[in-house]
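Fold this sequence, please.
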Amino acid sequence: MNTLWQNIQYKLLRSDSKIPVLIGINVIVYLLINVTAVLETLIFRSDNISFFSNKYLLLTANLHQLPVRFWTPVTYMFMHAGPLHILFNMLMLYWFGQIFEDFLGKKRTLGLYFLGGFTGAALYILCYNTLPYFTHENAAATSTLVGASASVMAVIVATATQLPNYEISIIFIGPVKLKWLVLFFLVLDFLGTVGPNAGGEIAHLGGALIGFIYIKQLQKGNDWIAGITNIFKAKPKLKVVSKNSSGKSTGKPRQEEIDLILDKISQSGYDSLSKQEKEILFRASSNEG
């Protein structure tokens, strides 16, 4: 029990993982708004906090209101409609986020979270203002989008795209490869685009799409998130150039190398790997079918 608690403390407080940061922000925002809203209702019999938070923090598809609520494409992805909504999203972010960071590093998580949220928001706004199913009844005028689901889907699909054959164990089912689990999620989301939560399902698909595209571009050597981050970094005055006479290996690593690295991870954790070992593991996952 002590070991389990120490592992949790390390992951939440001492590691440089971005997953606890994102979960913490989502939980704090949810509790801050909803606890005060409940207290307001109990004491003053009013619902001003809920009304104004829904009006000014959720994302609208109304093109007339969106320009004056330009911050909502950011705020909506930290809002949730209820306790089960935030619980499911944060569990999925925690489970898949750990896998994502173990194989792709911890510097891309925040960027992908926001990239997924923005893409989900854009697809939601586009569909509600162009598709006849929504424009016929002017659904954009009254619809709002809430939740971190598009951001979480970006992380989930990115993880499955990088590691399609990675297996996780599901209760009552057993080991399931990520590619089949994600395919199941995507089918459910697509079928739900004509249901009561159509906007949310469309946003899920947007987040999934950008997660897939991001990894495919990363495998080609195009790291969008690193590129955006580098824009805001100060350029060094001096540059040190070194050459590696052996060159960078791009072939598929031998299974013996991979097994040794995986054994080292199980004993000492991912952060104990050297830069070369991490690069070998990355190339192995990139070549996985």
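The domain at 16-230 is CATH 1.20.1540.10 (Rhomboid-like fold). The first helix runs from residue 2 to 14.
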